[in-house]
Amino acid sequence: MATIKDVAKTANLSISTVSRYLNKHPYISEDKKKRIKEAMKKLNYTPSSIATQLRSKKGKMIGILVSRITNPFFSYLVDAIEKQAKIDNYNVLIMQTYDDKYAEIKMLEMLKQHVINGLIMCSVEGSPQMIESYQEFAPIVLCNEQLEQVSIPNVITDQLEGTYQGIKFLIEKNYKKIAYCTGGTLNIEGHGKLRTEGFERALIEKKLDFKKEWIFQEVHTTKDGYDVAKKIFKLPKNIRPDAIFTNSDEVAIGVLEYMIKQNFIVPDDLAIMGFDNQPFTSVLATPLTTINQPIEALGKESTKLLISLINKKLYNVDKSKLKLTIIQRKSV
Amino acid sequence: MATIKDVAKTANLSISTVSRYLNKHPYISEDKKKRIKEAMKKLNYTPSSIATQLRSKKGKMIGILVSRITNPFFSYLVDAIEKQAKIDNYNVLIMQTYDDKYAEIKMLEMLKQHVINGLIMCSVEGSPQMIESYQEFAPIVLCNEQLEQVSIPNVITDQLEGTYQGIKFLIEKNYKKIAYCTGGTLNIEGHGKLRTEGFERALIEKKLDFKKEWIFQEVHTTKDGYDVAKKIFKLPKNIRPDAIFTNSDEVAIGVLEYMIKQNFIVPDDLAIMGFDNQPFTSVLATPLTTINQPIEALGKESTKLLISLINKKLYNVDKSKLKLTIIQRKSV
DNA sequence: ATGAAAGCGCTAACAC
DNA sequence: GTGTTAGCGCTTTCAT
To answer: pLDDT tens across B192-231, in order?
Structure first.
């Protein structure tokens, strides 16, 4: 690998002059510019970004933390972030946490180590205080997440309202026995807490019962959804729910899968409400009624906010496009 | 930010001793170990990976190039690669090319600049010679891709054979007028060339006709598939194909979508063969008959091969799990 | 306008 | 076992 030294030697100039050329410093004579260009071409030289970063500390990399890239919600979110980041010449380093606190810390440490210059967290595992403390090293933006009692900038949709509307939609369609899935646990703060609040609000408002048999915690995958359905249909008919509000289309598809296999009819035997409006949910055996998340806007605004923060500038998040909407199809 | 110097000063030791501790050098007295630990905690010290990389040149980052992370084939492939990379403590830097040669070059340049220590290319755009030349800087492994006339290690499945079997399957099911989709163009080398060869071989063997109206080039997305279907059903009935072999489930879903919308029946009006066996293809309105790709094995073997190359060791790819298999469902 | 020289934070001989 | 020292490739004063 040719270094700046080699270029300087070949062009018969000092290292500093070459460095200035590289950094587009004004006032370098045309003659020397040409000599440098030639030397660089001859030696096939590329600056070592490692050395540049070491010295100047201004890298151009942002990190994204997602729980699982195979979840289309996240892959589309990453896609949106990357498209926006590219505009400002940032590269993107993606890491999956698999809900593992340790992996999250590894990424946060990269902030400290200047591997990344900012981080968008689309999933959070560790304690709010711990995460907050890392802001000392570089900006962090929470995307589609919210942390209480600490101050970390975020861009979010109104998950409480979205869920509230979704449940209300179900009730108005005359479903009264509503099962509910959440990725978290009901007790602990975090994961889906706001959605659960929206769920409760709608139920209370419509004076409907809660039944602990209808609440499913820590469900994430299609397989989890499948297992939830299995449990539901094992319930005696009189206490079996007539609709299920899932926390993602992936989970909803698991429920659907079980019902198809057992020859149950959607929505007659059980209505299914998805969440995310993922691609292909309109072409399923029963097209899914679901809640659309504004992924594009979420990714774009988070990125704009983060890059502004990196450049120590202000940015007002445009909230106009961050609305959740119900997509009505056949499963409800 | 505290540096190794600060730690040394605080612990009242030399920089080297601290460095040795950091690098798990044997034989450091327990007393000093403790002093170093305390100093590190007190100063909240983390080594700068930039400096470490500059000095030792042994970063721990591998790059992955995919065309679009939103394509489940790639997100699952990335997932498999990441899981394997983690075992050897490598982090993973993902970049999307969007079939853009320029983005690809940007990633290749990162090889030069030591940002990444190896690259897995799950998609290739530029000229074989250009890509080959970058091996000078760090190892490159092609995953699910093949380049002629140059020598770049790769791990692949037999796409020709897979397609040949797929088309033969169609013919044996008594479909004789087979439409064919490819991501590339028929003339130029690259993109789907081997699959096209498999297609041709099966047709010739079974003495079936080619019709240029049945060939669709440069189709990638669900929307492309939708448009292909539209064209097919505009054809006069006597020259309309009775089956379509698509190049991905995404495309197949587009075809399905159009047919549902227009009230055509799958497979009676047109049989659809997918490619990839993506999640949820079994729960579609018409469950998709498709070709399963061994994504797990592809990712795992590519990563093992790349890391071996980085460490200048030999590795023999385990080909036993790299087989394409037909998944028979309802669309054929 | 250009060059010399002092580091950035770390590792790795080499010496003791 | 531990300290001293010379860089890694680059940027950035400070001279000239």
So the answer is: 888 999 999 999 999 998 888 999 999 999 999 999 999 9
Task: Give residue-wise pLDDT tens across range B293-332.
Answer: 999 999 999 999 999 998 888 899 999 999 999 999 999 9
* CB proximity B49 to A under 8 Å: yes
CB contacts, 8 Å: B284 with chain A: 280, 283-285
Q: Which residue has the tokens 């790299």?
A: B322
A11 SS3 class: helix
Yes or no, beta carbons of B54 and A51 under 8 Å apart:
yes
Please say whether the beta carbons of B282 and B63 come within 8 A: no
Task: Count CB atoms within 10 A of the CB of residue B310.
Answer: 19
Alpha-carbon distance A33 to A25, whole Å? 11
How buried is residue A166: exposed, middle or buried, by Cβ count under 10 Å (0-12/13-18/19+)?
A: buried
- Other Cβ atoms less than 10 A from the Cβ of A77: the count is 25
Q: Which of 52-81 (B) contact A at CB < 8 A?
A: 53-54, 59, 68-70, 72, 75-76, 78-79
Residue B186, class by beta-carbon neighbours within 10 Å (0-12 exposed, 13-18 middle, 19+ buried)? middle
Domains in chain A, CATH or no CATH each? 4-47 (1.10.260.40), 60-156+295-322 (3.40.50.2300), 159-292 (3.40.50.2300)
Count of A–B CB contacts within 8 Å? Answer: 114
Q: Does A137 touch chain B (CB under 8 A)?
A: yes
Helix %, strand %, coil % of chain B (to 5): 45, 15, 40
